[in-house]
Design goal:
about 35% helix, 4-stranded mixed beta sheet, homodimer, alpha+beta
Chain lengths: ~325, ~325
């Protein structure tokens, strides 16, 4: 942290640190993992225009910046512990900072995840968060564990964030309620931390859906050396998305991106445990297909007839 | 990591990971600290025009991006373990990426510090590194431990990075050799990792000099509730800086910034241990003053007469 006007930023983020032996203000933050635990680490960088729109309310932006990182911990089944925040801002904007800090710290408190350090500087708007969690040794949910015959599940609903983005782009018109609910999904996703932890020992693999179901599921299939069939019309959708034409429902659900739901696999004999995990985590879980020994991804319609995969995965880097 | 053209970036940074149980490529990286060790974490964000000039060779930039983070570990006496890299680039520039990765990974190898994860995205050029080290429980060097009567030391030389910056700005003319040597100090600082580790149990406090000696020393004095006298003309300087007028020598040495040397305190009875630590770490260490019970910072000239402190601390945020 350098001297000067930007030091003012610190006041929005300075709190009493309890978990870290040493928090914000020394050269490093110090903390320890418990015996038998592994540290899970993930880092995400958010850039205006790529990962969020200039129209996002600062409080929701603060929430989302941490949420996308917590979602990575959730996908590993790790319990959140702490995070660092590096922030570049073109100028000190107290309204933005106050709202951003409020949203960020509210989500941090909800998950008992402490801000332990970071950096602030002047520059084009950029948010980089690195998050730390812990998971019992050998129990992390990985992308590589899916087995042929496993059931394929997803949490929550898919496609709302993409629908909201298209509404902002003007390619679709939504009524007021649909716009607000899908916008909330885009701007304030709920990381499935409790579900991820509950699925330790239950799921065989997991990933969070950030780039779109097809793209993210492909990572799991490649790492696990398996294939899958996906029941496209069984994908869980909000009422707002349900009101759209079927092609939109499929496109947003399969390739929407920015969902931050968990897609995971579990053997059929664990179906009751999956249901119990979902109940304990208070989130809906829907079975959307099966893992197959045959490689590749097969999309089936409501009559279990094959669909051609013509869906691109949401890409932050497409212009 | 999102799909698309920017995935190509990964090829420059993908290596076999040995320390982490799980490295680049899953939702999180997993690793464990050894029993009795604390994790030391630091995060720094570098922005073009603020922390580096567009003229910097990519290899030196890769070196520096990691070096400034390793310098924070050094200031805590922590042994480097691993780091994450988040990178925003306006476009995929293979020449830049190849050079950047070469410099970054060469320094990482030199310190056995593994790249275990990260993120890449399109956006204004921004480099955010979070570094992890370990230090035996309770042995981290802190800013808060300086005691009245302690000797005050600094490693290496101070002021070269500032002198190079002024040469780039055109406010000073340097001959070719002086320009190259000071430019190297600015663009390729050497983090004092070995010295920091050797000073565990020897030094009472430490900080790395990133914003300028006066500004950084002030953090130590405030945290330790002590004061200091600094022998301004005893500050270690390069031959290039020595050739400048005395006011320049003092200004660059006291308030230059971007030095990434360690300033630390140790009781007089540890003087021989300080010397031995410096020898083992193969870096010069110079005594530059004393810690006092009287608060505040007093600058003394070569006749030990008080100088008025008219030196600002280098500020990344001054326009």
């Amino acid at each position: 942290m350098s001297l000067g006007e930007f030091d003012l930023i610190a006041k929005y983020f300075t709190r009493t640190v309890t978990r870290a032996a040493l928090g914000v203000g020394d050269d490093c933050a110090l903390f320890a993992t418990s015996p038998g635990m592994q540290l899970a680490v993930s880092s995400d960088m958010l850039v205006e225009g790529r990962h969020f729109l200039p129209t996002v309310p600062p409080q929701r932006l603060g929430h989302k910046a941490l949420a996308v990182n917590l979602s990575d911990l959730a996908a590993c089944g790790a319990r959140p512990m702490a995070f660092t925040l590096a922030l570049a801002l073109p100028r000190v904007d107290e309204t933005l900072l106050a709202g951003f800090a409020r949203g960020l710290l509210a989500l941090a408190d909800a998950h008992e995840c402490e801000l332990i350090g970071g950096d602030t500087t002047q520059g084009p708007f950029n948010i980089c968060i690195t998050v730390f969690g812990e998971v019992p040794h050998g129990q992390a949910l990985l992308r590589s564990g899916a087995q042929p015959g496993d059931d394929l599940y997803v949490s929550g609903t898919l496609g709302d964030a993409r629908l909201a983005l298209e509404a902002f782009r003007g390619t679709v018109a939504l009524d007021g309620a649909a716009f607000e609910s899908t916008r909330l999904a885009m701007e304030q996703p709920q990381p499935r931390v409790a579900l991820g932890m509950a699925l330790r020992g239950v799921a065989t693999s997991a990933i969070d859906v950030s780039d779109g179901l097809l793209g993210d599921l492909a990572h799991v299939l490649r790492r696990s050396n398996v294939g899958a069939e996906v029941w496209v019309d069984a994908l869980p959708r909000s009422a707002a998305l349900h009101a759209m034409p079927l092609t939109w429902q499929r496109e947003c659900g399969l390739a929407g991106g920015d969902d931050y739901e968990l897609v995971f696999t579990a053997p059929p004999q664990n179906a009751a445990l999956v249901t119990a995990s979902a109940l304990s985590a208070r989130v809906e879980v829907t079975r959307i297909g099966s893992v197959t020994a045959v490689p590749g991804l097969r999309l089936l319609d409501r009559d279990r007839q094959p669909l051609t995969n013509t869906f691109g995965s949401f890409d932050h880097f497409k212009s």
